[in-house]
Amino acid sequence: MDFSGTTEISDEGIKKHFKSLEPWEALFELAWNGLDARAGTVSVDVVENEIGGVERVVVLDDGDGIDIENVKDNFGKFNDSAKKEDAAQHGLHGRGRLAFHRLCHSATWHTRSKNGDAEIHVSGSNIKKYNGKRIERNAQHSRLSKVETGTCVELHNFHENLPLPAKLQQVFSTEFGWFLALNPQRHVLLNGTSVHVPSHETVRREIEVGKFVFDVTTIRWDERPSSEKSYIYLLDSDGTTRHKQLSSFNLKANFFTSIYVKSAWADGFESEGKSLFSEGNTTTDSDEWRKLTKGVNELVQEVYDEFLRKYVNAEISKYVDEGIFPSYTGMEASYAEWRTENAKSLVRMIYMADPTVMNSLNKKQKKIIVRLLDRIAVSNENDALFEILNGVLDLDDLSVRRLSNQLKYTQLENIISTIEVLQQRQTAVHKLRELMNSHYQSVLETPDLQQIIENNTWLFGSRYETIGAEEDTFTRIAKNLRDTVPTINAVDSDDVEEAATLPGATKQTDLFLARKIPTFDSFGKQIYRCIVVEIKRPGISLNLKHLQQLDGYANIIKKHPEFSSEHMHFELILLGRKISGADMEIASRMRGQIAKGEMGLVSDDERMKRYVLNWYTLLDGFELSNGHILQQLKLRRDDLSALTKDELVADLQTS
What we know:
Ribosomal Protein S5, domain 2; Heat Shock Protein 90; alpha+beta; 21% strand; 40% helix; 4 domains; nine-stranded mixed β-sheet; elongated
């Protein structure tokens, strides 16, 4: 018996619907047809020819088969379908079966249903026409010989290639994973291998609403399912999907979920709303449903918050690896660490508020944005930064309060951190002053004093705050050259401080510190900044002899081949407890360089500067430059502390 016919739409109309479909996605549609027909297993087999091309594809399912008594409901309609039983069905539009034309020229459906066996053929060149005929049971396709019902679709004459097997397995997993997770008793096979559920996290919880218990399973997918949005599925006691609706988290960036809710409450669910004649109210308008969705949303919010926390931490780690954050070179170590953590906190806050803001930026743009945020956050423009971010980000009231407090606390923490650094330095200054005033004659522990200098190089000025770790080769050569200077270690009576004794002074030793630091000059050219500090023993006063030793050391360095590079710029610093009152040459050399505005500068050559400094000049310089700042910061800290305490209490009471 022939039951050929045509679809109620033109060829062009059909093909227009599949214009954006990838050719291999036609296999998805055929597999979905089998699952929608209640198949327990759908198998897709790709048969290749001798040269590795696709000869045919066979899609077999053990579902209900095509009802040949009502074949017009299957092949005669488009954008309509007879499959209405399950709300989770994929093929509710009656068009997926014709997607095959994107991949090949012809398709044949061999089917067996409760009403008999049949064969239907469709050609891609005349896709609106289908040719069908009934056949005897013993004439059916061999793949259907052992099943009571089912369908076997064969595709021939391919004009497009399929992805490689591994890629095809991956896209099938992405397409069907959510369905297989929802229905673990059902299977999709690709070339005999089960399509697996893709990587995911599962959270389960029971929600009680009145006398009903709802089993809620939330699956968060690592990758977005190819054809599935984030839905909430309502399942009855038999596992049939009675209702589905989009989750309120459907549009969250990189957050893909499937939420399954199973309960006996859904057994009598009415999808079209409460009927006037219904005894119970099992609809989306019911109190139970509203309370249920509230509980589900709270659960998904917890999953989202945990996902976002891990996602943001991973993004910040990428920022660190890619060098997005500033390096804070030249800053004191503890302050630089605080600035780094504060910059990370700002980026974390923005990601938590709206993860899409930074995702579209390239590496250079991220660097610019992060550095601008970092600079503004530690300036007096926190209010302006708050206005900008609040105007750009899509924030709720709670996020607005968090953002405001973050920036206010950032300013407060910055002030507190600065105060702590200055107070630590102030304490070091007091201790060093006491050492030079009262104990300079008996200082013998030169390693300890050297460590003090290495940990407090900021005393020489802001550009010496961080001078890095010791480089063995540079330090060894610099020290060896220093030791060649005549009488460099000799001490005579003219060198000794009046209150000191010559035997005591000779027991002390000079200290030596050398560092080689990569940096940039004023023209942006990369250079090595070579710092050499000669710290004379505390029991002597600096005089002409020591200045001549410094000049002699400078000449030796200039002549040494290892230090002849144009990229090496030297700073030689001679430091003593005080400059001898009888010496005139050191003061004269300083006056000659006074126009340069650099403390203690006695010589300025092309690649070498020489300085003579005394401890009291360094200590007084710190107190003069930082005392007023320290007092003002304490006042500002007190103002901010009073301001933010009340806000913190209010937030804790309302959150």
